[in-house]
């Protein structure tokens, strides 16, 4: 099937673009000896896991279901971190994962013995209390009052015997300079415990595949921890794996005017791309401009009843009309994993564009997918 024949709305992941990212990440692994794993919460299109598994070392999960998905569909290294684990899930999690990361010493005391008995590795999430982002408190695990990671003040060296690695995750869409200053804070607060560890996990938020990212500095950061403390280094980016590797294709259903031209699309910000409202951000739209840049400006809105279900204002060379197809870019990450069926909205079809440019529908959703989540 051709791209232009795909039904709308559809998420389309481009295998060539995905592989381009994977090659960049694999290059970092090859040159440094670090391991990079996929943070599934950003991108869980498991039809692509065989391809991802050719280049990366495995997966990481936020809990039982993602852990099981990584185990079933990639079957390589499988890590997990959750702020707290449930008694009725922890044994299955330990069976599925090789690295179990605890958020606190009380979690370690509650479940650590079982991890060791199963022959798996224990990690501890630390909080270096070093904020490197501004104005984005919901994405800052180092913000005051954060529930993530053990602070220096609460550190318990007496309980470290079974801990083989430390884990921090403090970045979001950031470059390697912020990683470097974070490592300074990690060393200052926790450096004395690093020599007794086997590994360190730098978390996610490294925008490695973004144009202009400072890969040599990242590699220096990795080597610094390898050489100084003899540690195996893990990175677990989500975004960087499928950054700019997919689209959301939609159609114009109607145009109206209320002091401004408005187009209603067969998609929804709140159902299909909730980060547009939550983050918030303006998704790139192919062949469009900023408002007023091209002759015809429209506010693009979704099909739900939410007044704020607006994707943004964009301008075009020609007036929009019924049936026109619009293609949003960078729609592989934090999109498919966050969809919902509010208002009874259908979920977008999921498709793959292969290396020859042919498109294949991987999954279609219908009424049953909406109904099955309710009762
Ligand atoms: C979200 C998250 C990641 C991935 O972050 P990206 O910003 O998508 O790279 C990795 N590790 C942990 C613990 C996370 O919470």
Automatic annotation (TrEMBL):
The gene is nspC. Pfam families: Orn_DAP_Arg_deC. Its EC number is 4.1.1.96. The keyword Lyase applies. Its cofactor is pyridoxal 5'-phosphate. Keywords: Decarboxylase, Lyase, Pyridoxal phosphate, Spermidine biosynthesis. The keyword Lyase applies. The lineage of its organism: Bacteria, Bacillati, Bacillota, Bacilli, Bacillales. This is Carboxynorspermidine decarboxylase. One of its GO terms (molecular function) is diaminopimelate decarboxylase activity. Substrate binds at residues 239, 275. It comes from the Bacteria. InterPro entries: Ala_racemase/Decarboxylase_C, De-COase2_C, Nsp_de-COase, PLP-binding_barrel. It comes from Perspicuibacillus lycopersici. GO terms for biological process: lysine biosynthetic process via diaminopimelate; nor-spermidine biosynthetic process; spermidine biosynthetic process. Residues 117-331 form the Orn/DAP/Arg decarboxylase 2 C-terminal domain.
């Amino acid at each position: 099937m051709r791209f232009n024949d795909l039904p709308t709305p559809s998420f389309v992941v481009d295998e060539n673009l995905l592989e381009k990212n994977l090659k960049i990440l694999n290059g970092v692994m090859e040159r440094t000896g670090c391991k990079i794993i996929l943070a599934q919460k950003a991108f869980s299109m498991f039809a692509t896991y065989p391809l991802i598994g050719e280049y990366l070392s495995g997966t990481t999960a936020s809990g039982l279901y993602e852990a099981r998905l990584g185990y079933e569909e990639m079957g390589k290294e499988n890590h997990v971190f959750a702020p707290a684990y449930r008694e009725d899930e922890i044994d299955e999690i330990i069976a599925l994962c090789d690295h179990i990361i605890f958020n606190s010493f009380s979690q370690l005391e509650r479940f650590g013995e079982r991890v060791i008995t199963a022959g798996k590795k224990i990690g501890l999430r630390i909080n270096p209390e070093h904020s490197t982002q501004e104005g984005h408190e919901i994405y800052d695990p180092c913000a005051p009052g954060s529930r993530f990671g053990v602070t220096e003040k609460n550190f318990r060296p007496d309980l470290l015997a079974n801990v083989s690695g430390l884990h921090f995750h403090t970045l979001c869409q950031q470059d390697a300079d912020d990683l470097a200053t974070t490592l300074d804070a990690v060393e200052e607060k926790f450096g004395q415990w690093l020599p007794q560890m086997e590994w360190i996990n730098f978390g996610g938020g490294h925008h490695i595949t973004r144009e202009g990212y400072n890969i040599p500095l990242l590699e220096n950061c990795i080597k610094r921890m390898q050489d100084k403390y003899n540690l195996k280094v893990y990175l677990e980016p989500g975004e960087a794996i499928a950054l700019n590797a997919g689209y959301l294709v939609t159609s114009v259903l109607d145009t109206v005017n209320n002091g401004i031209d408005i187009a209603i699309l067969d998609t929804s910000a709140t159902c299909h791309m909730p980060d547009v409202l939550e983050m918030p951000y303006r998704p790139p739209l192919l062949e469009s401009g900023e408002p007023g840049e091209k002759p015809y400006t429209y506010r693009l809105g979704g099909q739900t009843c939410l007044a704020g279900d607006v994707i943004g204002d964009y301008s075009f060379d020609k007036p929009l009309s019924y049936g026109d197809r619009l293609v949003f870019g960078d729609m592989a990450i934090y999109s498919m994993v966050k969809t919902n069926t509010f208002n009874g909205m259908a979920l977008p079809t999921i498709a793959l564009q292969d290396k020859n440019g042919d498109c294949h529908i991987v999954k279609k959703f219908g009424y049953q997918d909406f109904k099955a989540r309710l009762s």
